[in-house]
Amino acid sequence: MTIYKNRNVIIVGIIYGISGLTMIVHSTFINSFMLDSGLNEQLAGQLISISGILYIFSSPIWGAISDRVGRKNALIYSMGLNAVSLVIPVMFSNTLGFAISLVIQGAVAVGILTLIQALS
After folding, report:
1. Residue among 96, 115, 116 at smallest CA distance from 104
2. Which of 16, 26, 44, 108 would disulfide-bridge 78, Cβ 3.0–4.6 Å?
3. Distance CA 33, CA 64 (A)
């Protein structure tokens, strides 16, 4: 039972929860945001598909990065990139802004969850 009172376990749990929440919010609202910004449905779907394909490679890539720079540093880098990917479409609500955002999101999102699990 002392593990549930361990400060590091609590911090990792909070980070995991926040990361999961940002993934859910992003995936839920990005499509509507793209459509409201004038992108057609087909292009929006293609951009989301590209992001989904990148999800497949996210974990192994971030695992390799964390082997070189450490789990904690890799998590900080990936979460920073994730934050950037969430801000880009707000600042640039056009095709390029959404494309960059979704490529970054696809490249880091699942890797963040993997890094958190490895860190714990």
Report:
1. 96
2. 108
3. 33
